[in-house]
Write a structure and sequence with these properties.
It is built from twelve helices and 21 strands. The chain has 375 residues and is α/β, with parallel strands linked by helices.
Amino acid sequence: MSNKLNITHPTLLLDVEKCRGNIDRLSTKMAREDVIFRPHFKTHQSREIGRWFRDYQIDKITVSSLRMALYFADDGWKDITVAFPVNLLEINIINDLAGRINLNLIAEDADVLVQLDHVLHHRVGIFLKMDTGTHRTGIDPADIATTDACVKAMAKSANLVWKGFLSHAGQTYLVRHDVEDMGVVYKNSLQGIIALKEHYHSQYPDIRISFGDTPGASIMDDFSHIDEMRPGNFVFYDMMQVQIGSCSIDEVAVAMICPVVASHPQRQECVIYGGGIHFSKDSILRDDSKATYGTVVPYSDGRWDSSQEQGYVRSLSQEHGVIKLLPDLIESIKPGQLVAVLPVHSCMTAQCIGSYLDHDGRRIDHFASTKYFLQ
């Protein structure tokens, strides 16, 4: 039994070479397309991994919380967008950040903007959050009245600087290996905010459209009308992105290494130490319409082999994971061994684990294990 890295419990292993390759590919692509690249750091949430982007002259980033913005601001990032609706209860953090970096917030309500203006000590950038099809939150681009009210609220303020429109085309996650379909989703998602930008252009010539999603950034080649892209998941990818067609399985840069703790040959299953608290419970459907929470591949000597699928995670509870194995493997995978699981959703898996181990056995930091997250 090989256990080069002395792994004894669920451990998220990072392939640094693959991760750097993913960063190189998207950074180069965005530079070629002359699009501002503001990568979303909510996936890796790591200062060390964030520094790798500086090799590509990236100096603008996106995060998902104000505390995460603090974490990265204290590592030297000076231009940060918090892509989550502004939380007025965190005004102390907002004023701290706005006093030392270029801070962009997002909003979708004129009353919130008025309240924010009353308590700000420094200027902040504001993106109006637009709902371009996901229906999670944001202003409907057809709702001119709401947009106008927000624009007027900002115009009356010395501290609110309108930056433009921000959206996440989450419906791209429904596309499956179809560049043409992806193009249709993008066209439909952009039409409304392109019209809005043109509507306000004469008075606000510098406003921009900030878009962001890994499927679109990875698959699309035409970014006409998009001024800024904010993908995040691409840094690691995962099995959901493989299914969409954003990447190949060889480009997935993280795998959860889990001990096998029980075997059930009669069911062609084994049980791993690795459950919902390690992976999250995000799932996708296989070709046979069965839910899967991860793809099982061989692991040996600190490496996983994504070319050989051994089975899939069919269910998760708190600590348990149940793997359905291929028929000819049930006798060869025993308790005491380690298997690698390529996660369905790497962002959530990384958040659950809170650190990475690289192939040399070195720990790499994660925001979730720091004072910024815990305080």
